[in-house]
């Protein structure tokens, strides 16, 4: 039969694990817990071709074993940041299995914020979700990408869009006052060692949000670029950042048929179609 | 042809509207905006049978007109709470169309929290979503139900489950220490006029969260009941509250095969199947 | 503390089970399998108040036990239809636990169609999903509701909407030719014993689809009513049927600004807002 | 301020368009319609940097204009296949705008199958969704990727998994009889001109499904490879194919605690975590 296997990759996705951390041992219900939850994808490349081409499973680390591994590593690791746990995961697979040539771990955190300053009560956040991606190739160093997802932000003025390309397919008028709303996501890389991934993320997210607000936006594009610059300024270790800013449209409702003025007051909210803008800013 | 029409109802769903409120007029970019967003469902009952049985559309207020109406009402109304806007919607339809016998509005708020104390910058919250349902029947008064959805909370100790029914289909062991996590939702009714729906909701949610934490939970059932009582205590106007507390399971990972102890430390997080518990607590 | 428990209910949701049926025993890989998959919700009412009010779990059949039960019953039952399995579930819970006063089972089938006439190959269908709901109260008989969900159908002509209510909030023009598209769902009840739920469902769905096509539709309302009548005619055992037909809008694209005619040719497809129409037709 | 813009891209996503094709003109309701629906993403690269770095929007073709363009092109094009429409889209943007250096269109089809041989009645399919991706860089030729998504298939026997890597983290036992279920997706490229994309896709999908069934599967990996080979054999124009076959686990229910044998009969169906396997097969 014809057909060569030119690439392959496999692993386990959506391994969801939570952990109670007990920083200081204390009598039972006086312990002050920390509570973390990650969803982990792990993928392997290496000398697995025979499984595909010859039905020979001997090199295959079952995806079920990959899952077991995540739980065991979650026991042995402090789960302090998704980045550090991602590094532990890829180093485990590369260290233990010589025939694996590349391992990638992707992590998404469900952030549990402390509730009412309780020692053991938490409420989950669903915005500004931290993400990490760690890749390790045989002979190399772990490459860490950090990120944040699902940051739904808006400015209700100080945004316009004028003088864009005009031709016979354009119907959108110029406007010097509109709502700019976006579901921001970002990923970034670091130049060297990072002492504290959580502190870096916090500084970066704060810089992104602050810059989003601090200027009159002439386009999503301009604001994206300024936000990328702000992030680079806020984190000296950052090498480059990619921002994705889909336009979450709030369209001025047409109230003219109903004898109402609508001076940027009432808007129709739509999910699709949506404008998609992405850009990368580097040192 | 056989078959009588015994019930019918129609309307428009997922009418999503946002509004910029400008409490005090001020020079352009010094205005301090408020920003609100609702998704509205409206449904009508009444003398619409001929549309079904005779193809006679004359009584039918098009669902497109229902949509227009929401936008126009959003212009005329302050959109201060989903409850008050819901009342305005049902009163509009009942007041304008004599052949409508019943109108129901359901509203879900996307809460836009102020960002960095900016006068026009906002970040959307995706937890603890306010909801309202208002129903008005011909000759009656609007009946308001308030609610809250998507409150994902956990306590990492102070929860157990023992001595439940034992038979040959039970395999779950007793435990006096477990994670209790739930995605709380609640709806409640009021005994009379309510001065401030937003203040009532805040008091109720705070009471629910506080009670969730303040005791050793012997079951989701017990905690649900205590939370319902706390809500009744916190809001004198409330008549009854229905709580739904699906169990968001964090199951102790079995690390025994890997020679690791797991003293309530590492958990497998699953979405399904899930325990479902609901109850109503009334004065 | 104030607050009486006035209602409660609990159970397990999303218990997903599949089963290989081997109608005739045959040498290993010559068996002709059937493959079925259900997602089951089960809910119980009864003498459970003490769990809520006194933390007394002795009457509580753990939701984990409910889950075990579904798997065990799936072993003992042929899983020939969701209705018959639903009956078996509610009869099990009512028969075994005297303190349960009411049991409800809801089932959704993932239909696995045979693939290429293979004895053991299947492809899942994601449209026209069968559903069932069975309720049994102490002292009564099981009440079976059958249904079907996710039937996305359209007619590209033979549909119009004219002469509907006209006022200052109406902007939609009359049209005598439009696309009518809907995601049909239906539930129905039976007058007496039903010999073959699967045959009944097939006859009903065929009648619904046939009637959807066979006339010029003057409104979704009219078509819904005609479809309900057709279903009653097709299944003598049916007592009443409730149809829900949300409008999946295909809106004529406005190509006038681009010097193109659009004689019902190109449409903008939107998911929201959407018209919602429901009605019940009974003998 | 620091920070160089090193990459950018933008466009409109989820532009959903449907079209009625009337192959032969005929008196009104005797026309035999065809009905197609695509969701289109279009993205542009080019000389847009000044929009990011200088707030200069003059080169920016508004995403709203991109949306208009899709509707206009849908009028002018037969919409016979997602591939051919994708080619028309990228050629339009590259032909009209000299400052665009690269255009990518991604299309997903909602297949409307004819219902009851009606000339204008259709039912939407939600499995085996056709996809296409077309990319055109300045100076090059359109590069077409075809694909198919959401093909949920299972074999209830003729599948095993034995002799895979054994270590202290493995707990999964060998099995020579299991359910193999997967949600197949595939994308492929062509070596040259393709006369009929729809015929090619049909041949490829049939080959994939046929091969899925025709052998005893020693692993997902082996079956994936054999399926890729079958696709190459079935379509002479195909250059390479990438298959993704996530494992949709049906896990043998443990009925031992309930004194029931479970000889591959009853299974627990889970969505996560799930095994992920992907591979590329080329000539």
From TrEMBL, chains A, B, C, D:
Pfam families: Uricase (PF01014). Keywords: Oxidoreductase, Purine metabolism. It comes from the Bacteria. Belongs to the uricase family. The active site is at 12 (charge relay system), 63 (charge relay system), 249 (charge relay system). Its EC number is 1.7.3.3. PANTHER family: URICASE. Pathway: Purine metabolism; urate degradation; (S)-allantoin from urate: step 1/3. InterPro entries: Uricase. 5-hydroxyisourate binds at residues 63-64, 161, 178, 220-221, 247. Catalyzes the oxidation of uric acid to 5-hydroxyisourate, which is further processed to form (S)-allantoin. O2 binds at residues 63, 247. It catalyses: urate + O2 + H2O = 5-hydroxyisourate + H2O2. This is Uricase. The gene is uox. It is an enzyme of class 1 (oxidoreductase). Urate binds at residues 63-64, 161, 178, 220-221, 247. One of its GO terms (biological process) is urate catabolic process. GO terms for molecular function: urate oxidase activity.
